[in-house]
Amino acid sequence: MDQEANNQLLKVSWYPITINNSTNNHHENNCIYYVKYLMGETDYRLLITDLRNVWYNAANAQDLYEQASHHRLIIENNQQLRQLLRQVEAFLQDLENNCEIIKEEQSLKIKCSLQQKIGTLSWTFLCELLPSSTGVSSMDAPTVLYNHFILPMFMLIQNQPG
């Protein structure tokens, strides 16, 4: 995650999702993730955490064209690209019902599908695990958790009338 993406995502609120982990290698039945994303005209940025790890995924227009072709979708113009982004956003808005989260060693795979009139639309978000230390403070997981989660919560608590 670069500094620009970090700064843009700082302005976005988290929302919680609860995922049944029956397919994952976890001891708990459910796992709570916190998600934030930002959609652009021809791109998106996605940040997800379980408060232990942080994963990031982003796609620009070229990435979206390539991934669409992997899913056998033909995107020929910007209007179709925006339509695809609207559907990608719909997946992000309803991760609990339309998606499966698969936690791997260095990534988090979010596989989404939705039955539509003419077939099933599928999309996969391949989120990379942010490292625990990089030397570039805006890109490591502890700094992202601190700046995006802990510091805003601390500011809310500190500003409560007491």
UniProtKB/TrEMBL annotation:
Its main location: nucleus. Keywords: Coiled coil, DNA damage, DNA repair, DNA-binding, Nucleus. Belongs to the XRCC4-XLF family. XLF subfamily. CDD domains: HD_XLF_N (cd22285). It comes from Phascolomyces articulosus. GO terms for cellular component: DNA ligase IV complex. Residues 13-128 form the XLF-like N-terminal domain. Residues 78-105 form a coiled coil. It is found in: Nucleus. This is Non-homologous end-joining factor 1. One of its GO terms (molecular function) is DNA end binding. Transmembrane segments: none annotated. InterPro entries: NHEJ_factor, XLF-like_N, XRCC4-like_N_sf. GO terms for biological process: double-strand break repair via nonhomologous end joining.
